[in-house]
Amino acid sequence: MPGGRVATLALEGFVFDTGATGIAPRGMAIEQAMLHELPTDDLVQIVKPIYLHSALRVSAGDGHKNAVARYTYRQGNARLGELLAEGLDVRYGAPVDELCREGAGYRVRDEVFDALVLTPPVPQTSPLLWSLEESRAVANARYRPCISVSLGFGAELPPLSYHALLDPEQRHPLTWLSIESQKSPDRAPEGCTALVAQMSPAYSFNFWKHEDTEIVRDVMVYLGRLYGDRLGAPVVQDVRRWKYSQPDSVAMFDSVNEPASRVVLAGDGLLAGRVESAFESGVKAARVISGV
Fold first, then answer.
1. Burial 189-226 (b: 16+ CB within 10 A, else e)
2. What is the pLDDT of residue 9?
3. d(Cα 207, Cα 214) in Å, to the nearest integer?
4. Sheet containing 193-199, strands listed edge to edge, beginning at the edge strand earlier in sequence
5. CB 69 within 8 A of CB 24
6. What does pTM read for this prediction?
7. Domains of the chain from N-terminus onward
């Protein structure tokens, strides 16, 4: 899907951002596109801040970081990818396992292109480069796994002072909790709560192959410690596993891509693990391809 890990799940009236849960333009190229070039009727500025937790003890977040403007879409953050892809020839169900040189171009499945931009996580891009008998300086790009748990409840939390909780040390299994229904309108039916719990790299690695029911049970224990029993049992649930959720370290775009290259790597593994940084790398890739 356009947007990759900027993913959204709609389930029985609930809307969950199962990947990136917010977008902070930070004055980068995405700001002009998102705020001034693309339709903004569905765009929502996230008003409530991010708070911190240490072993589920909640405290106010960093005032400076919370001053950064963050946005989401009422229909979910996948809307950004959909808007950017409008007018493009997007193919689905067409896996690409190898690339081939053909004259001055490159064959992808049964078509030949003048140039390629490769945007999957770096570990998935490397085999494609090998099929071209190429290698790049990407060894520094390392990713963490993440299990993302979406839960919808038939009860409503009272208004909170925050829309999300973060464990900055990543010592607790619950690294990130986004209360979707406090983040944006239209994320849950009236009187209900939608939230996304994203688990730490250590938990995600250790519980990767465990049953969904076991993972949901763990999350419910943590929610009980935060909010008591007011939520009850979830009425909808989903567990997503992101093997390459976010880079812990990155390769440098300019070291990986030579000027005037016709095969360009882009994505968050070449700049920073944020939506706005992935977009920025795409802008840089366009400049390389176009020779600007």
1. beebbbbbbbbbbebbeebeeeeeeebbebbbebbeee
2. 97
3. 9
4. 57-59, 50-54, 164-166, 174-178, 193-199, 142-153, 234-249
5. yes
6. 0.94
7. 1-89+99-292 (3.50.50.60)
